[in-house]
Fold this protein.
Amino acid sequence: MRRIIVAANWKMNTTPADAGSLARTIGSRTREPGVIRVICPPYVCLAAVGDALRDGDVAATDGLGVEVGAQNVHHEPAGAYTGEVSAAMLDGLATWVIVGHSERRRDAGETDELIGRKLRAARAAGLRTILCVGEQLDERESGRAEAIVDAQLRGCLGGADLGALGLDGTGAGAVPWLTIAYEPVWAIGTGRTARGADAAAMAGAIRRTLIALGMPGGGEDVPVLYGGSVTSASIDEFLAEPSIDGALVGGASLKPDEMAGIVARAGMTAAARAGLDGTLAGDAPAMG
């Protein structure tokens, strides 16, 4: 059974002075069993957020706390790369990392090959990785959306020995090292919206590509998140799709009310899936 994940991408917002308080508030208001919660603040706020989330008041009834993730990582372990942060530097600060976000592709010119190197560096350091993929508006309107995402996945993962990279485990309660976030770029901050059916169709296409690439388990253990300006008002449509396993939340993740609504719906989905699987959500093991 794939776990439900809600990851908060704070982007370039908050400071060390206020990030901890916001993280603690969100954590205490999202204590839904069966939901893996991840907060990804700016680099300079990682320590403050990590310290705040050690508070027992953020743990759900199944023992799951709130994980901390970084928004990016460098592909090299060390060197003359001014302003960059390596995977080793995140040790003790984060257990997750986002790679390939559409804003990194757009603003930093990141290529699939470079993103693949970042992904492998993160995996080697033991970081769970959220790999972002998604198409532009003209690519969707021309009928090339699935082909674009297929090419991105092949570009990021095709050079890797996926069997050697392996998974953290399989079966109920296990969390693969890789999570994929589908970002329809045309639906991020534009006022346009994707539909649940769109995201579900793309999740199916993503897993077909993972099968073709030789992902262990045929990609069925890899969670696929929706990441297109999701809110508490829109999340239902996406979590109603069995192939969607949660959300990568942008602007709404800075608002405790929004996060409370999103995670509440995620908790309902987690409970329903656990019931179908014959496993109680509260039986899931705690995450380290």
